[in-house]
Structure formats: C-alpha cells, structure tokens
Design goal:
single chain, alpha+beta, Topoisomerase I, domain 4, Topoisomerase I, domain 2, two-stranded antiparallel sheet, 11 helices, globular, disordered C terminus
Length: 358
Amino acid sequence: AKRYGLSAQQVLDICQQLYEQQQLITYPRSDNRYLPQSHHQDAPAVTAAILQQLPTLATAVRHADLNLRSKAWDDTKVEAHHAIIPTANKVAPGRLAASAQKIYQLIAHYYLAQFYPAALQDEQKVSISINGGHFLATATTERQAGWKQLFRADPDKGRETPQAVAAEPVTATALPTLSEGQLLHSADALVLEKQTQPPAAFTDATLLAAMTGISRYVKDPAVRQILKDTDGLGTEATRAGIIELLFKRGYLQRQGKTILATDTGKALIAALPERLTLPDLTAQWEASLAGISQRQQSYQQFMLPLQQQLQQLVQEAATTANLQLTASAPVRSRKLTQKNYKKRAATSAKGRRTRPAT
C-alpha cells in the first residue's frame, strides 16, 4: 500500500487474485511471518518460478544461497497459516496486470532475502562533555550488506526499491577514532529552535500499522499486553475490510494519500460512550476468547455478560444522543429506548427499511 500508492483493500484483492486465479502465492490472509522447515526443500523450484516470472530478478536469484536458513524457518512459530511466499507455479508472461506484478515482485523479494546472509553493522556512540553539558554523537558503519543489498535506496525516488546488487559496498566510518578522556576542540555551535508538530494524518499503510500496533495507544499495562499478544485490532484478513466499511458509511474520506475523519465520523465518536471509542474493550473480548480456546471459560460465560454489557452500552448511547439533541436545538424527541433505538437503526431517513448498522 505504501510503496505503490494502493489502498489496503486493493492490495488484499490483488493478493487474493494471485492466490486463487494464478496460484502464484500462498494463502494471503495470514499474519504469520514464519515458514515450516519442510518448505525449505521447495526453494529451488520456487526461485526458478520467480526467475521465469520476473527476469529482472536474475541477479537476485543468482546470488541467493539456497543452503541458508534464516530465522523465518521455524515450525514452532507457524500457526494455522504460514507467511505469504511465492509458489512454484508459473504463468505466461504478460498475463499479470501491472499492479499484480508489483505485489508479486515484493513478495518474491522478501522470500529471496531469506537466502542472503545477515546484515552486519558496527554502532559507535561517543559522549562528549562541553562546558558542563553532555552531548551524544552516534554513527553506524556497515560491515556486510547481506540481505539489505536487495533493498537499496532508489536515488531518483528517494526511497527503497527492490533491486539486487552484485557488490556489497561498505560505508566509510562516520566518526574518527577517539579515546576516553581525549580533549577535543569545539569549532562551532548552533542552536535550533523548533516547534512540536501534530501527528501526521494517516495513510492506508500507517493506518494498518496503527491497527496492528494499537497497543501503543493504550495506557493500561495489562490491556496493552493483551493487544500485543493478539496483534492489535482485527486480523490480516479483516483490517482492509474494516477500513473500507468506514469509507462506505461516510466516516472516513481521502485527501490525496491521506485519510481523514468526516464530520459524520467525528459526530459518531462524540455520541458514543467513551469506552466504545477505546481499544480496551477489544482487549477484554480477546482475553475472553483466548480463555474459551484454552477451555478456561465457557461460551455462555462470555456471552451472558456481553449481552448485558451491550444493553447498557445502547442505553448509554441513547442517553448521550438525547443530551446532544437537547443541547444543540429545542427539538421534540421521544425517549430513545433500546427497543425503538433498534427500530431507528433499521429505518432510513426516507422511511425505507434497511439493514441495521452493525
């Protein structure tokens, strides 16, 4: 999504096509990042398929050492589905659309990276005392490019691009050789005055990352740990659909590549009880579902409190909505009970019956 300017749903649809129609990749709705040890023996056939599908990767395939096993090959960390990788299947050249070709190439590059050595670098940190103040200088020196040689920066676009290089250039040392206690001369000093900036608006890529790492926005340590263990809000298979649904319902809008909340979306958040706008409730449900899967809790023990909780939340939402109506304009409105709240949710502005919002 980030690299090629595609929406999350577009990427998911393309991957589904590569999986179902062309059978060029494995199951795409997976959030696992590990591979079964038994799949390692398929590497020659898979790399041969990559070479036929993407002749531009000939150098990357030639320099891959198929005898290497990265940490990605780990049976103990493979769950229902393993990581998304290319298959040994091949299709005729020209059958893939340009966007599908790009996604396949990206998946192929990450697969090939598993057969490259580790990237090694030296890190230097120097603490300098100047007139009672402590300053820190850091530098990173690359010793071995390893797998990073597959993802060198594109000087024309200012970003990384999947492109293999034959050589492994080693960067020069950024800091001179220093010894502890050595006296240095401060040649110049510069004070920079800056102002803090608000967080940047979300894009498809950053919104997906925020949903996965939603624990960063949670204060409660216990809730944060649950969300870390469950990989955030939604799954790889559902996150794109959740975002797309918010667009369809008019809660989100696009401005170029950025995603912004609409007035309708802001009004919805303002009308809801606060705990419905926080990820904490998701963490509680995830903990209960985990308990069911481990036979520590029954289905009824989860559902009965949930039904009571939902009834309470509907009543709170109805009360909040009535208070906002009273504050904004002196309009007449009958009391919004749980029963007629459901009826209103199922009736459009013109009086036609529609599906209730979920």
